[in-house]
Write a structure and sequence with these properties.
single chain, 5-stranded mixed β-sheet, 5 strands, binds zinc ion
Length: 247
């Protein structure tokens, strides 16, 4: 393929712009805010699980406490009834009296035990409520942090998009000055060579792959016409000759 040395030089401008565009795309992918948001999403799921566990525990404890309070009430009613019989003086038989008093004593012990159970349940409820409150506060903190990081991420993405749009517009202008067949070749090589399709030959070295050319290769290039489009055998990029090529 043939192309004027000026057209070939424009490929170096294109290569710089493509490097810049590649750098920007990489920056967008590697934004630290993305990793932060991932971490926050995981943390949000964790506090949500903690909250669900605390809610389940609270409703279990509420049920247990209601049951224990009902038991206490039943025992209390029985004690009252026994006590009333005793106070009314209706029981005169000594054995019956003794049995009634012993039943009241036993019911009082039972009432005490049940009240202990209620107290214990209340303590456990308080601790579960504390875990629930902590999880709720955690949820709020995570949401606030997510909002803040998302805003920072969006700002960075917008800044990258602006730079990309500038570089893309400059690239379009430069590309318009490159003959169609040369541009097509450049784009094909670019797709194969990982982002950049042309490189300068500087002091006998290809700047695309950083490999020095052999004397035979350099001699071939020296013998080639200025409008001959030259490719580097090693990396297949289009080699651009300049005053610094060392030819
Ligand atoms: Zn090369």
């Amino acid at each position: 393929m043939k192309a004027s040395p000026e057209a070939q030089l424009r490929l170096l401008e294109l290569a710089d712009l493509d490097t810049e565009l590649g750098r920007l795309a990489h920056r967008r992918r590697a934004l630290p805010e993305n990793a932060e948001l991932e971490r926050l999403t995981a943390r949000a799921a964790q506090v949500r699980d903690e909250m669900t566990a605390a809610d389940t525990e609270l409703s279990d404890l509420d049920r247990e406490q209601a049951r224990a309070e009902r038991d206490v009430e039943q025992v209390r009613v029985r004690i009252d009834k026994d006590q009333q019989r005793l106070d009314a003086g209706k029981v005169s038989n000594a054995r019956e009296l003794e049995s009634l008093q012993s039943e009241i004593a036993s019911l009082r012990r039972r009432q005490g035990d049940l009240e202990e159970v209620v107290l214990d349940l209340m303590e456990r409820r308080e601790s579960a409520q504390g875990r629930r409150d902590a999880a709720a506060a955690g949820t709020e903190a995570v949401a606030a942090e997510e909002t803040e990081v998302t805003a920072r991420r969006d700002e960075a993405v917008a800044e990258i998009a602006e730079q990309e749009s500038k570089a893309a517009s400059t690239r379009a202008t430069v590309a318009a000055g490159v003959p169609g067949d040369l541009l097509a070749l450049y784009d094909k090589v670019r797709a194969q060579a990982g982002g950049v399709g042309a490189a300068m030959l500087r002091r006998g070295k290809c700047e695309g792959c950083n490999v020095s050319l052999s004397t035979v290769e350099l001699n071939e290039i020296r013998a080639a016409a200025p409008d001959e489009v030259i490719r580097h055998d090693e990396c297949r990029r289009i080699l651009i000759r300049t005053a610094e090529s060392g030819l």
